[in-house]
């Protein structure tokens, strides 16, 4: 989305009092300073229009189609959001529109007459153009109403403070629960992960490798896993001689040269070499 749009994910709408007050959620809320608020409901999986004209969603676990009412669901959630804000002291007008997205189903697979789909319906065909299509879903009448920057900032603050919805244990599919249990067993069987101590590396050969905890988000649950960066290979150490070592080496070399020169310049050595030369002749 362009920078002028604020996007909030999986926000709860308060429907009562007490510890379970937040339970109705809105998948996405798009907020704009001039256009207002857009509540989006996302329905994954296979979607079709049944014989009675209602939308149906296929559940692989149950292996059957179930009737759904995504438009009524998101409209009710948007109304409850506005009602809750009004009860909390909001006096400004809140322009609100709704949208339903079927990200895993093409328009032609939903119904034989795709042109009859309700306004504000986006399908898999439209995913590549969301940044262009979503701004057009705000009602034209809302664009001319009194929705000023103060109202926008107040609503943004309210949405930021809203808790993120969590899926109740009873709503988690059985297959997902089994996968979670198997993953926990695998984690328990893993040996202790040894992290070698940090070594001093010359600045020019240093690598910014660290051990970090990364978070993996799942539609059902989140869990952390440890990521250890590989240890960089170091070049062979270079030998550096000190000044006094170089001076000693030079003096030894000069002494050896003088010794060999004295030996070859000695008269006895010259006499021996000359004798050998005469005998060879």
Tell me what you see in this structure:
34% of the residues lie in helices and 23% in strands. By secondary structure, the chain is an alpha+beta fold. The chain has 3 domains: 5-166, no CATH class; 174-228, no CATH class; 243-280. A 5-stranded mixed sheet has the order 1-2-3-7-8. Strands 4-5-6 form a 3-stranded antiparallel sheet, with no helix packed on it. The chain has a two-stranded antiparallel ribbon with strand order 9-10. It is elongated and about 130 Å long. The termini are far apart. 14% of the residues are buried. Residues 18-22 and 201-231 have low confidence and may be disordered.
Helix and strand layout, with pairings?
Layout: E1 5-14, E2 22-32, E3 36-42, E4 47-49, E5 55-59, E6 64-68, H1 70-87, E7 96-102, H2 107-110, E8 121-123, H3 130-133, H4 140-143, H5 149-161, H6 174-189, E9 211-217, E10 222-228, H7 243-265, H8 267-280
Parallel strand pairs: 3-7, 7-8
Antiparallel strand pairs: 1-2, 2-3, 4-5, 5-6, 9-10
């Amino acid at each position: 989305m362009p920078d002028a749009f604020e996007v909030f994910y999986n926000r709860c709408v308060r429907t009562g009092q007490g510890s379970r007050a937040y339970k109705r959620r809105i998948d996405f809320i798009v907020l704009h300073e001039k256009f207002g608020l857009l509540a989006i409901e996302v329905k994954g999986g296979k979607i079709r229009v049944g014989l009675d004209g209602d939308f149906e969603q296929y559940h692989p676990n149950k292996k059957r189609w179930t009737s759904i009412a995504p438009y009524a669901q998101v409209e009710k959630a948007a109304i409850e959001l506005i009602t809750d804000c009004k009860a909390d002291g909001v006096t400004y007008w809140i322009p609100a529109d709704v949208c339903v997205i079927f990200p895993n189903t093409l328009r032609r697979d939903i119904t034989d007459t795709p042109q009859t789909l309700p306004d504000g319906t986006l399908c898999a065909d439209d995913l590549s153009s969301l940044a262009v299509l979503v701004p057009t879903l705000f009602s034209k009448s809302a664009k001319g109403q009194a929705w000023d920057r103060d109202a926008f900032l107040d609503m943004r603050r309210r949405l930021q403070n809203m808790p993120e919805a969590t899926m109740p244990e009873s709503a988690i599919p059985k297959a997902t629960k089994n996968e979670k249990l198997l993953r926990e067993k695998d984690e328990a069987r893993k040996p202790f992960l040894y992290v070698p101590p940090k070594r001093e590396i010359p600045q020019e050969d240093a690598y910014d490798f660290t051990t970090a905890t990364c978070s993996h988000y799942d539609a059902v649950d989140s869990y952390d896993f440890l990521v250890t960066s590989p240890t960089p290979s170091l070049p062979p150490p270079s030998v550096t001689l000190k000044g006094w070592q170089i001076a000693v080496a030079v003096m030894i070399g000069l002494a050896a040269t003088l010794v060999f020169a004295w030996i070859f310049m000695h008269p006895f050595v010259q006499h021996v070499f000359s004798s050998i030369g005469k005998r060879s002749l």
